[in-house]
Amino acid sequence: MAVRIMIGNAHHLLLDALAHTLAAVPDFEVVGMAREEAAVVPVAERTSPGVLVLGAAGTGTTGTALARRVLAVRQGCKVVLVAPSPTRGLVEQAGRAGVWAVVPMDASLGHLVRTVRAVSVGCVPMHLPGPRERREPSRECTLTDRERDVLRLTWAGASAKEVAKELCLASGTVRNVTSTALRKLDGRNRFDAARIAQERGWL
Fold it and tell me: Is the whole model's pTM more than 0.85, yes or no?
């Protein structure tokens, strides 16, 4: 079943570019667009998107407040916030508002596609803080470098095929590495394993 996507962005050029890019992904379907802030909630009510890709003001205030209003009428919708400067404060504010992921404005379209796919299946790839802000590992890491690489890409929303291509590995090797990591982390699936590794500071 295709992922139903709605896009809300005040910039007409960005709105059209995002719609064109996401509609071209085989398992994505763009079911609604809104350029005016006042139109976002009515369009979401009418189209029932599974994922809402929402633009944000520079501070993120408008984006998070608007996300709350959408989720008040469409609780099952997963909001991805696109922000110019996703600081730790913005990420925390977005998380409290129910946003599933924050994508930097300077990220690639491929990153956005992977993020949308990840949240559509229940993964929460919130924008990660910079190297200086990352937490120290909570315990000794039991993962190999290859397992960490696979989980790191999974956390970013990459499909198994994309992981294999990025790391120049065979698909079977990616499956085996993922299975080993799942056992070590006691994850329900590869996305859950990536979440656990991230929470422990291993990625």
Answer: no
